[in-house]
Amino acid sequence: MSAHPITERINAMSGGRLQIHLFATGEIVPPVAVLDTVSNGTVEMGHTASHASP
């Protein structure tokens, strides 16, 4: 399931108490900076792919 349907479900299930807004890849920060951006409080949460190194 992609981020968009999950966002819609969370927004609906919370009855409006929690609102998640999606932004396109790179719209706020480069994809490789998502963890750092959440860690320093610039954004409250992030979503990114997890990949294992070969």
User: Uncertain regions: pLDDT < 50 for 5+ in a row?
Assistant: none
Structural class category? mainly alpha
Q: How many strands, which pairing sense, and closed or not: the largest β-sheet? A: none
Task: Report the principal-axis shape.
Answer: globular
Distance between the termini: 25 Å
Question: What is the mean predicted local confidence, pLDDT?
Answer: 87
Report the total helices.
Answer: 2
Short description:
By secondary structure, the chain is mainly alpha-helical. It has helices spanning 3-13, 34-39.
Characterise this structure:
With 54 residues, the protein is mainly alpha-helical. It has 2 helices and no strands. It has helices spanning 3-13, 34-39.
Task: Give the key terms.
31% helix; globular; 54 residues; 2 helices; mainly alpha
How are the elements arranged and paired?
Elements: H1 3-13, H2 34-39
